[in-house]
């Protein structure tokens, strides 16, 4: 795992300043504390920070081909590199290292930009082809590894982290108002948008080609749910188990100590079981929970201990307090680089710190829920069934009685969503579902909160449009697959995987996600929807059906039958204590007030509303994360 950065001046009379590339790469030293490398070819500069995992002695980067005409900086792991190496050797390519990096170089020489089609793994890389005067930048299919870029009139620059791009003097930390508008709905920004003006994310499954003063961004991979496997249930389950086993085995490739993030859910427990069997050794596992007064409901380490005992792992765990959560907030925001209002990131930061004391590589069950339909609360059946029931109530009663009671007495955000949804025809449900469940602030609520700079920018398109645009690509998919597609393309890479990368790399820890090997993703996408979610004989929904059947008798029964809870954070309780004090100080600080972005009186009213028992914690948390981020990065 590494950090990469570079710049390509379109004006060939300009020369890259080596000091700039050094500054860019050293800003990411946490991503690669083991080695540093720089390559300058007049108007092109490439920088690399290395965390040594494979081929520890000879994997130095930037790396070139034999005649020095093709150079690469690479972040990630290619799990099928040994297979590809054999093919390339048979074609006459010579190797001087045992690294996966050199395999990419020769794959590029063999197939140019189409080389990405053969790579299995997590990656972001940049290849400078001196002969063709072309810079190729690529990101893996699922977006496991981040990659940012800037395309200015005079140059193109890229990096694993935003902070490296901000080292370029012509890229000031400016706020993108439209990104803020969308953040307040989703609590994160969907690619290619970032909160920094003019800085973009390269979208998952895309490549960028820069040449002759222009860039071209092209998609090379997508998920296809339309072609379904026709086979007996037992065969599909057996094939799923075989593929997950193979993916886990490939992800165990390492020359440094390796462990597993064990939450006690079925995803990480399944990976732990497979790793224990495949390695034949006592694997190291790590878990975390909240401790302190009234925090027992937020400590699920008992399930992790159960799994650890079942597989006889070398288990480590940590409990964090409210004080530690608040103390970790600033560091979390610094390493995330963008405001992301996902409070589970802070516990992840702490457990990654614990794991780094023992290992350099860690596996997790990330992606299992989005792949196999693990969340009932954002999948169609539960929420839309309730909306269907409400729809049976006469419209006049819904609008003038139920809405009135909820707005004045009950004040339930979830009830409001169901009532709003009941107003729509069922044919519109697929277009609104993810936005409806992630709607922290409605469009109306945002403009009620905005100060002058945002009030005068009513040109903003509704935030839901970005979700609807993704749905337009799901025509012909079954309803459940439509949900999975959008969440896999947006929620997974731009929230879950981004925080996983940033929180682990903050401690120079490489995270791997076997569930997101693209060969497994493609297989599960092609599986019938009832292999992902179905009703049992009692009418209850079974999530991740295929996974549960594949691991019957292979994991503890208590975990196999356990409902998905997710990593819960007691934010509401924290906003009654130290977080409430911090929020008061931040929202009323001179720095925040002078931005004029929000009506401080409205935020103060929200704080009092929350104090009175009306839960607006999620809104306050989103605003607090943004305010601290803006101050830490000196964004104007």
Q: Any idea what the CATH architecture of the largest domain is?
A: 3-Layer(aba) Sandwich
Distance between the termini: 32 Å
- Helical content stands at 40-55%
Tertiary shape: globular
Q: Enumerate the strands of the largest sheet in spatial order, edge to edge or round the barrel.
A: 2-3-1-9-8-10
The fold-level CATH name of the largest domain is Rossmann fold
Structural class: alpha+beta
Q: How would a textbook summarize the main sheet?
A: 6 strands, antiparallel
Number of domains: 3
Low-confidence stretches: none
CATH class (first level) name of the largest domain: Alpha Beta
Tally the helices.
27
Please state roughly what percent of the residues sit in beta strands, choosing from under 5%, 5-15%, 15-25%, 25-35%, 35-45% or over 45%: 15-25%
CATH superfamily of the largest domain: HUPs
Radius of gyration: 25 Å
Strand tally is 19
The whole-number mean of residue pLDDT values reads 91
Describe this structure in words.
The structure is a single chain. This protein is of the alpha+beta class. The protein folds into three domains: 2-219, Aminohydrolase, N-terminal nucleophile (Ntn) domain (Glutamine Phosphoribosylpyrophosphate, subunit 1, domain 1), CATH 3.60.20.10; 233-373 and 482-560, Rossmann fold (3-Layer(aba) Sandwich), CATH 3.40.50.620; 570-636, no CATH class. The chain is built from 27 helices and 19 strands. The strands form four sheets. The protein has a six-stranded antiparallel beta sheet with strand order 2-3-1-9-8-10. Strand 8 and strand 9 form a beta hairpin. Helix 2 packs across helix 3, helix 9 packs across helix 27 and helix 10 crosses helix 19 (479-505). The longest helix has 27 residues, at 479-505. The protein starts with a strand and ends with a helix. The mean pLDDT is 91.
């Amino acid at each position: 795992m590494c950090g990469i950065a570079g710049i390509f001046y379109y004006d060939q009379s300009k020369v890259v300043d080596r000091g700039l590339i050094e500054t860019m790469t050293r800003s990411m030293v946490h991503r690669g504390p083991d080695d540093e490398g720089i390559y300058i070819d007049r108007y092109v500069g490439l920088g690399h920070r290395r965390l040594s995992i494979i081929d520890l002695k000879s994997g130095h980067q930037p790396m070139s081909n034999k005649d020095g005409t093709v150079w690469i900086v690479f972040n990630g792991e290619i799990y099928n590199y040994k297979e590809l190496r054999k093919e390339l050797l048979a074609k006459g390519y010579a190797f001087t290292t045992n690294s996966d990096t050199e395999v990419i170089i020769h794959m590029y020489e063999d197939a140019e930009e189409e080389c990405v089609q053969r790579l299995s793994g997590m990656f972001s890389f940049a290849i400078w082809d001196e002969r063709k005067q072309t810079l190729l930048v690529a990101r893996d299919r699922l977006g496991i590894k981040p990659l940012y870029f800037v395309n200015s009139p005079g140059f193109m620059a890229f990096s694993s982290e935003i902070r490296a791009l901000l080292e370029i003097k012509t890229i000031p930390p400016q706020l993108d108002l439209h990104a803020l508008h969308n953040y307040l709905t989703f609590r994160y920004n969907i690619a290619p948008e970032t909160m920094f003006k003019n800085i973009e994310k390269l979208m998952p499954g895309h490549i960028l080609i820069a040449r002759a003063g222009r860039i071209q961004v092209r998609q090379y991979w997508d998920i296809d749910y339309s072609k379904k496997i026709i086979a007996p249930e037992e065969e599909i389950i057996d094939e799923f188990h075989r593929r997950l086993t193979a993916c886990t085995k490939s992800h165990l490739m390492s020359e440094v100590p390796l462990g597993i993030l064990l939450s006690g859910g079925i995803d990480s427990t399944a990976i732990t079981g497979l790793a224990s069997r495949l390695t034949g050794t006592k694997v190291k596992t790590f878990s975390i929970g909240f401790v302190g007064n009234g925090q027992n409901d937020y400590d699920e380490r008992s399930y992790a201990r159960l799994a650890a005992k079942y597989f006889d792992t070398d288990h480590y765990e940590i409990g964090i307090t409210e004080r530690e959560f608040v103390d970790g907030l600033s560091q979390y925001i610094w390493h995330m680089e963008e405001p992301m209002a996902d409070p589970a990131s802070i516990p992840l930061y702490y457990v990654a710190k614990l794991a780094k004391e023992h290992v350099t590589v860690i596996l997790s069950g990330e992606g299992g829920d989005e792949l196999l339909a693990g969340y009932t609360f954002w999948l169609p059946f539960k929420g839309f069934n309730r909306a269907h029931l409400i729809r049976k109530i006469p419209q006049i009663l819904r609008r003038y009685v139920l809405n009135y009671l909820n707005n004045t007495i009950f004040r339930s955000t979830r009830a409001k969503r169901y009532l709003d949804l009941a107003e729509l025809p069922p044919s519109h449900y697929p277009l609104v579902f993810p936005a409806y469940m992630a709607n922290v602030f409605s469009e109306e609520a945002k403009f009620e909160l905005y100060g002058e700079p945002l009030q005068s920018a009513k040109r903003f398109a509704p935030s839901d449009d970005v979700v609807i645009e993704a749905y337009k690509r799901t025509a012909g998919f079954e309803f459940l697959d439509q949900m999975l597609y959008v969440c896999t393309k947006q929620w997974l890479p731009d929230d879950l995987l981004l925080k996983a990368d940033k929180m682990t790399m903050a401690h120079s820890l490489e995270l791997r996600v076997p569930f997101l090997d693209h060969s497994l993703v493609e297989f599960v996408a092609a599986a019938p929807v009832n292999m992902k979610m179905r009703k049992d004989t009692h009418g209850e929904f079974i999530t991740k059906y295929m996974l549960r059947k594949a691991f019957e008798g292979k994991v503890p029964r208590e975990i196999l039958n356990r409902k998905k809870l997710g990593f819960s954070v007691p934010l509401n309780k924290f906003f009654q204590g130290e977080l409430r004090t911090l929020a008061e100080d931040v929202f009323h600080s001179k720095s925040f007030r002078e931005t004029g972005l929000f009506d401080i009186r409205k935020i103060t009213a929200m704080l009092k509303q929350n104090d009175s028992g009306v839960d607006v914690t999620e809104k306050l948390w989103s605003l607090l994360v943004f305010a601290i981020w803006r101050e830490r990065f000196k964004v104007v």
